[in-house]
Write a structure and sequence with these properties.
Layout (H helix, E strand, L loop, with lengths): L1 E6 L9 E5 L13 E6 L2 E11 L13 E2 L8 H14 L3 H6 L17 E8 L12 H13 L2 E2 H5 L3 H9 L3 E8 L16 H12 L4 E6 L5 H14 L3 E5 L7 H11 L3 E4 L5 H12 L5 E4 L11 E7 L17 H12 L2 E6 L4 H9 L3 E5 L10 E6 H4 L9 H12 L3 E5 L8 E4 L16 E3 L4 E3 L6 E3 L12 E4 L3 H11 L5 E4 L1 H4 L4 H10 L5 E4 L12 E6 L13 H13 L10 E6 L5 H7 L3 H15 L6 E9 L2 H18 L3 E14 L2 E10 L5 H13 L5 E6 L6
Parallel strand pairs: 9-14, 9-15, 10-12, 10-13, 11-12, 13-14, 16-26, 17-24, 17-25, 23-24, 25-26
Antiparallel strand pairs: 1-2, 1-4, 3-4, 3-5, 6-7, 6-8, 18-22, 19-20, 20-21, 27-29, 27-30, 28-29
Helix pairs in contact: 1-10, 6-7, 17-18, 18-19
The structure holds adenosine-5'-diphosphate and zinc ion (ZN).
Zinc ion binds next to loops.
């Protein structure tokens, strides 16, 4: 027996299938999709069996595989095929396309420290005649419980008496049974659902009754989309089918998971960054075994090994978190969803209050079917939005809060209602500068200013992780005049404390939520009214649903506008709309205050009027003129290396090769990336714009092949990049 094995090694040059023979002792256990250990040169590597072949076609001597790692297959037929499709679409290595599907516990090198956990249970031994034996009281109690429940957890019996338990074990009356233990529990909580509105019902029946297709559900914030998703999922559950629901990591809040758990109990598996590797592995096993049939998770949950999928839902479909941009494979979850929907003959629902331009354009063309929920549930009004021009305001105030916003906060607090304040930190950071000579601290490895972290009093590089203690005096002019610049949540918190000394403020940002469970605790505390103001970064803008919030303040709407990226208007519009959507969800009307230095920018004025379609039309026109998506496809070729002149030379070579091999394509660059040097690596971008693929993939594959073996210049290909920086 011969098997074709794909080995787990990140070297692109060996990304192909190698043949091994199978020793007799392992023959029965070999299946396509299992993991094996194989000799590879002088190393022993893990790999996936992708093919089982006929002996007779081989005459040369092959090496034996060494062992089988786990007896069950980890990649079923669908996932094996899916990996090949993702590979074709992204030009990443095939092994990376399989690795991205699996929990860390099943990856080479990581797996060893994540084990399956077991619980110890006891049951009565068969054929034991208890009547002839004598027992004390606690022994009798234990026997009675085990007789009733059949299988009882050790902990429960120890609570009665450990010594009695041990005696019963020694006398061979009780027998030990080990069962796999999952680190997380989903209690079967009380079933809860809303009576759907007529509009919601209409959407549900369109999705469930028509033939498989891709829908765009465009529904304003608070229109009851999540409720629709749950009803659709329920429909398929009753048909014995499974579901995947993707949400951006940032809105995969405990609140969201709880809503699903209240309705579906232990049928759900939730996969998010708050889980430990062990917990993720447990969830993955529950899914493979068919114990969980509804998967809620961030991007990579699109690979969940579910069988018989009935529906795939991508909530907040505009979110750039659905595109993997920092490592291979650089896939988009939407594309993977489309592959899987074809395999399972199921529909896809893309939902958003601010659909991406690409998706809305496809809906307008009829490629996707458009469904709308244009009003909030129960006729609630959209919040009233005030835009404050900070150019004028800055002359009158010393801090960062405008008079208008301060007044609105005061009014809300007086009415005993709650406030959410958003500090837009996209593309923004705080830094340290010398007021005497203007010196700023730069990362020694990267072409960027260091960010000041108050909690640890350090300066850190957000690109390479470099860190050092904050200085007392300027290293250049030796004056003690260093000052912290920029706007952080801590600074706003201090301002609020001065203005509203009795107000209880909850600060939610990367620093305060990094500890496990903190995010959950904070949301619960805020909902329970333990705080008046929730102050935070992007993470407060999405997905949260608090009924007592009647004011949302956006402290700096502009930072995301100033990012040099073609999507910056779209991202700003969407962030403002989402943030505004957190407000006025309860009985009382809500209002929103947006502080900005660009009060007339279209992204801000359309957001003020909750006018998605006008924004869409305006922005489409901009994209058409500038030849950006959805009118053109984009591909970014990132060329990098430690010697900047060599990198540039190779980048120019790539460009001229592309120019001669391709027609109907616009090629820009090579230009320096917006951060030119990261970790001592210099980076150039070549941007391709095109309407048709023609021979693009073949040409790029050939160029990529060439750079696989180069050690001084690296090439990364990013199709449909979420941003170009
Ligand atoms: P979206 O996902 O569109 O922002 P949600 O599904 O979160 O909207 O609904 C907004 C609020 O309205 C939630 O508090 C939800 O519980 C409530 N809600 C949704 N549908 C109904 C309904 N049919 N009846 C009563 N309340 C509903
Ligand atoms: Zn750095």
């Amino acid at each position: 027996m011969i098997v074709g094995v794909l080995v787990e090694i990140s070297n692109k040059a060996v990304d192909r299938i190698f043949d091994y023979s199978v020793p007799c002792s392992l023959k029965d256990k070999i299946k396509v999709g299992i993991r094996v250990l194989v000799p590879f040169g002088k190393m022993t590597l893990e790999g996936f069996v992708l093919e089982v072949k006929n002996d007779k076609t081989f005459d040369k001597e092959l090496k034996d595989i060494l062992n089988i790692i786990d007896s069950d297959i980890v990649l079923n037929h669908e996932l094996l095929e899916l990996g090949k499709k993702v590979q074709k679409k992204t030009l990443a290595s095939l092994i990376s396309c399989y690795q991205v599907m699996l929990p860390k516990a099943l990856k080479a090198k990581h797996g060893s420290n994540v084990a399956v956990q077991f619980d110890t249970f006891y049951c009565l031994r068969q054929n034991i005649n208890l009547d002839q034996l004598k027992f004390n009281d606690s022994q009798l109690k234990i026997i009675e419980i085990v007789r009733q429940k059949k299988l009882v957890l050790r902990k429960e019996l120890c609570a009665i008496s450990t010594s009695s338990l041990n005696t019963l074990i020694k006398k061979e009356i009780l027998e030990e049974v080990k069962k796999e233990h999952y680190r997380r529990n989903y209690a079967n909580v009380a079933f809860f659902k809303h009576q759907l509105t007529e509009n919601q019902k209409k959407v549900v029946s369109q999705v469930t009754l028509n033939s498989p297709q891709t829908y765009l559900l465009y529904g304003v914030t608070g229109s009851g989309k999540t409720e629709v998703y749950m009803e659709v999922i329920d429909y398929y559950l009753k048909q014995g089918k499974t579901s995947i629901m993707l949400v951006p990591e940032i809105s995969l809040t405990p609140q969201m998971v709880q809503r699903f758990q209240e309705r579906f109990g232990s049928k759900i598996a939730a996969i998010h960054s708050g889980l430990s590797d062990g917990e993720r592995y447990d969830e993955w096993r529950r899914i493979t075994r068919g114990e969980a049939s509804i998967v809620i998770g961030a991007r990579s949950a699109i690979f969940a090994p579910l069988k018989n999928i009935g529906i795939i839902i991508i909530d907040e479909e505009h979110s750039d978190s659905y595109k993997q941009s920092n490592s291979n494979p650089r896939y988009h979850a939407r594309d993977v969803a489309i592959f899987r929907s074809r395999y399972h003959h199921c529909s896809i629902v893309l939902g958003s209050a601010t659909p991406s331009l690409e998706t809305m354009a496809r809906a307008q063309k009829g490629v996707y079917s458009l469904l709308e929920l244009s009003h909030r549930v129960n006729g609630k009004e959209m919040p009233r939005v005030t835009v404050v021009d900070m150019n004028k305001e800055m002359k009158n105030i010393s801090g960062n809060l405008s008079k208008e916003l301060i007044k609105a906060i005061q009014n809300t607090l007086d009415r005993n209602e709650q406030v959410i304040l958003l500090l837009n930190r996209r593309g923004y950071s705080s830094f340290v500068m010398c007021k005497n000579c203007g010196y700023t601290f730069k990362c020694p490895n990267c072409d960027i200013t260091l960010t000041y972290h108050k909690s640890s009093n350090t300066l850190r590089c957000h690109y390479c992780g470099f860190g050092e203690k904050r200085y007392f005096e300027c290293p250049k002019c030796h004056e003690k005049s260093l000052s912290n610049l920029g706007l952080g949540t801590q600074k706003i918190e201090e301002e609020l404390n001065t203005l509203f000394p009795t107000c209880k403020i909850l600060r939610m940002d990367y620093d305060t939520t990094s500890r496990k469970g903190m995010h959950e605790k904070m949301t619960t505390d805020f909902r329970d009214g333990k705080y008046d103001v929730l102050l935070g970064t992007q993470m407060v803008a999405k997905g949260l649903d608090f009924s007592k919030v009647t004011l949302v303040g956006i402290i700096n709407a502009d930072t995301s506008l100033n990012i040099p990226d073609f999507r910056s208007s779209e991202n700003t519009f969407s962030l403002l709309s989402q943030a505004a959507g957190r407000c006025g969800r309860g009985e009382r009307e809500g209002c929103v205050v947006i502080q900005t230095f660009n009060p007339n920018h279209y992204a801000i004025s359309f957001a003020k009027n909750h006018d998605y379609f006008s924004f869409y039309m305006y922005e489409m026109n901009v994209r058409r003129i500038l030849k950006y998506p959805p009118y053109f496809y984009l591909c970014n070729l990132k060329v990098s290396g430690k010697k900047s002149d060599l990198v540039l030379r190779e980048a120019l070579k790539i460009k001229s090769e592309l120019t001669s091999a391709l027609t109907n394509i616009i090629i820009l660059g090579p230009s320096t990336a917006s951060v030119f040097k990261i970790n001592n690596v210099y980076r150039y971008n070549i941007i391709l714009k095109y309407k048709t693929f023609d021979n693009l993939y073949e040409v790029l594959e050939k160029i990529d092949e060439h750079y696989k073996t180069k050690s001084q210049v690296y090439l990364e290909i990013d199709f449909e990049p979420s941003q170009i920086l």
